[in-house]
Design goal:
heterodimer, A: about 280 residues, alpha/beta, Transcription Regulator spoIIAA, 2 domains, 11 helices, B: about 130 residues, alpha+beta, Heat Shock Protein 90, 5 strands, binds adenosine-5'-triphosphate, binds magnesium ion
């Protein structure tokens, strides 16, 4: 197997323009969402890829982890990020690289017709390299998406002013998303402010929407409960799902005297009881 | 033991702790862990990732999918190059904390998984390995 590409950089150099044209045609033909990317933008990205690919293979062999591949990796990261933002799927994004294979291999065949061993070596090395580069775009894509999810969760917490007044004297705070960001502290502070503002006696913190309760989350909750108590309000924690209840037990977290209820409705009833509000005899 | 898949997640910020939880949850779902086991493993991962971040100045998690028919498992290795833990036995005690936490993270994580090991030396960082079998 070829460790170095001997002919490829030369072919890229000599047939750069033709390769570019073939490659772009290839992509325009196979593209499912025509018009999603402007042809000018596509041409620019392809031309830049070709330039950096030639540089990288000339100086850095076929090992895409080498520093010579840095600019190329960066370009692919950008392409991947912008396509991700435009709604392309990871495989559609990877096709940007994979679609280069056909035009490239055609040229290789033409150029190395008389040297089958070199043709096989070179094609093999090039296909491996392009596979790796293509996979790299999907990796970047996933990272970008995860970052987006985290950011959205944070924004959601930021945008919502989730404290609601359920009844005179009863507040509810439905918590959603991860509870260990700084944002959570702000939300908790908002609850405390609202308690003062409304003179509420009971605050229900509903954690149905919280995926994980670990020691930090528990600590946040307990601090809030303690602070609320200092201001004369009792907290009820509702929405502890069975799996989370088990986890809390294993962590040996002591929720102490905090009242907990399975769901918001039960918590609300308990709160009404506490305020001495007569309720219709129900279930 | 055959490792069939492997990935690493860097731990350098709160957002990374969220990422760690998401990755672990996804893998546990892929392996069809029960909801309770998913929750237990994700919570243990959350504790150990945050320890690596807060006490170990950041590090990384190595996640390995293990196949050992008829069972499969997830192994998580948390590595940091922080100050290390001089007395592991003490650190494991419920309620012991040097950081104003509840001091339940290490002991709790141990109770939430099937296998648990801490390797640490002062100045040499900390490596916590946990495995959950399905
Ligand atoms: N990766 C680490 N590097 C250095 N010290 C650590 C590490 N992990 C844990 N420790 C030490 O062990 C102690 C106990 O850890 P543990 O996770 O049980 O509690 P905590 O992190 O202090 O609080 P919490 O209950 O919120 O987790 C810590 O306070 C810290 O001193
Ligand atoms: Mg901890």
């Amino acid at each position: 197997m070829a460790v170095n590409l001997i002919h490829l950089p030369r072919i890229l150099e000599r047939h750069g323009e033709a390769l570019l044209a073939d490659w772009i045609r290839e992509q325009l033909q196979s593209r499912s969402r025509t018009g999603a990317i402007k042809e000018g933008e596509l041409r620019e990205q392809c031309a830049e890829f070709l330039r950096l690919f030639r540089e990288a293979t000339t100086k850095g062999g076929v090992d895409m982890t080498r520093p010579e591949y840095g600019p190329l990796r960066e370009l692919l990261a950008n392409v991947s990020a912008s396509r991700g933002a435009q709604g392309f799927s990871p495989s559609e994004t990877a096709k940007f690289v994979f679609s280069f294979k056909r035009p490239l291999f055609m040229r290789l065949r033409e150029e190395l017709m008389r040297d089958p061993v070199a043709l096989a070596d070179e094609t093999w090395a090039a296909t491996e390299l392009l596979d790796e580069l293509g996979l790299y775009t999907t990796e970047v894509y996933q990272k970008a998406r995860e970052a987006v999810i985290v950011r959205q969760q944070e924004e959601m917490l930021e945008l919502s002013t989730p404290v609601v007044k359920l009844w005179d004297g009863i507040l509810a705070l439905p918590m959603i998303g991860t509870l260990d960001s700084n944002r959570t502290q702000v939300v908790m502070e908002t609850l405390l402010e609202k308690i003062v503002e409304t003179g509420s006696e009971v605050a229900i913190i509903d954690i149905t929407g919280v995926p994980t309760v670990d020691t930090l989350v528990a600590q946040h909750l307990m601090k809030t409960v303690a602070a609320a108590r200092l201001m004369g309000a009792e907290c009820i924690i509702s929405g502890i799902r069975p799996a989370i209840a088990q986890t809390i037990v294993h962590l040996a977290i002591d929720l102490g005297t905090v009242v907990t209820k399975a769901n918001l409705a039960d918590a609300f009833k308990a709160a009404l009881d506490k305020l001495g509000v007569a309720q219709l005899p129900g279930r | 033991m055959p490792v069939v898949k492997e990935e690493t997640v860097a731990i350098g910020s709160d957002a990374d702790v969220v990422l760690v939880r998401q990755r672990v949850r996804r893998r546990a779902q892929e392996l069809r862990f029960s909801l309770v086991d998913q929750t237990k493993l994700v919570t243990a991962a959350s504790e150990l990732a945050r320890n690596a971040l807060e006490h170990g100045r950041g590090g990384e998690m190595l996640l390995q999918v293990l196949e050992e028919p008829p069972r499969s498992g997830l192994r998580l290795v948390f590595v940091d190059r922080g100050p290390g833990i001089s007395n592991v036995e003490l650190a494991m005690k419920d309620g012991y904390t040097t950081g104003g936490g509840l001091g339940l993270g290490l002991g709790g994580a141990k109770r939430l998984v099937n296998e648990f090991a801490v390797e640490s030396a002062p100045g040499a960082g900390t490596r916590v390995t946990v495995t959950k079998w399905h």
